[in-house]
Amino acid sequence: MASPVRQIFAFSGVLESGPGEKESFALVEHAISLAARPHAGQAREHAGPTRVCYVPTAVGDAQAAIDFYQGEFAARAGVQLSVLRLFTQPSVPDVAAHLLGQDVILVEGGSVVNLMAVWRAHGLPRILRRCWAAGVVLAGASAGSLCWHTGGPTDSFSDRLGPFTGGLRLVPYSNGVHDDFPGQPRREVYRALVAQGILAAGYATEDGTGLHYRGTALHEAVSIRPGKHAWRVDAAPGGGYREEPIEPRLI
Q1: How far is CA 114 from CA 47, 53, 135, 155, in A?
Q2: CB 13 within 8 A of CB 27
Q3: What SS3 class is residue 28?
Q4: 107 phi/psi in degrees, rounded to 5
Q5: Cα–Cα dist 119/126, whole Å
Q6: Domain 7-12+22-38+50-250 has CATH 3.40.47.10
Q7: Sequence spans of domains, the chain
Q8: What CA–CA distances, in Å, run from 216 to 6, 125, 156?
Q9: pLDDT per residue as tens digits for the range 160-200
Q10: Are 139 and 8 in contact (CB under 8 A)?
Q11: 39/201 Cα distance (integer angstroms)
């Protein structure tokens, strides 16, 4: 029997969309498709709907966020949605058993610093590593993208972007999200932090673009918006940084 394929889909959601443009949920659907699709001769171990657990810790388990996803999935066949709340206590009796029984774990954006603090208090880093090793697709936007990496720029501490270095480190790269979002110098701050050695080399994504890792290697970048890019960013010898654009596959 083939070993489980370890997969992460880390993406930047669309913060501002224009008429006729796809919205962020198309990226969620792509994450779900990764679980439904056999890889390397390995099929899902169960028949029936794809089991997706939504984890809204980064927004404090806000009911509005939960209502949105429950509404989106209510009209879609083929998905069994559950929600893992951690406030004020876990909403399932056995967190490890529940998460290991999923096909996809979808992590909400918000405060990555608060997300990781709560997760660590409840033992989720160890559980999520087990899920990853077992072939559960780990996915998320913004904070739900940064968390799988070593870290990245965040505004979790204040309005000023600063370095976050407390990620789960399932993949050995830093991550920059919303790399092209106007009004915040995310692009410049990410590259400066990599150049200074505060963040490891890694990958940035523009809005609507995601990174699909298989194992610890980047398999491909995808986007729901034409003309968008992902970027590989490294510290340059002698100072500064070097970047390489990654042309995403349009989905």
Answers
A1: 36, 19, 26, 11
A2: yes
A3: helix
A4: -105, 130
A5: 10
A6: no
A7: 7-12+22-38+50-250
A8: 8, 17, 26
A9: 999 999 999 999 999 999 999 888 899 999 999 999 999 99
A10: yes
A11: 28
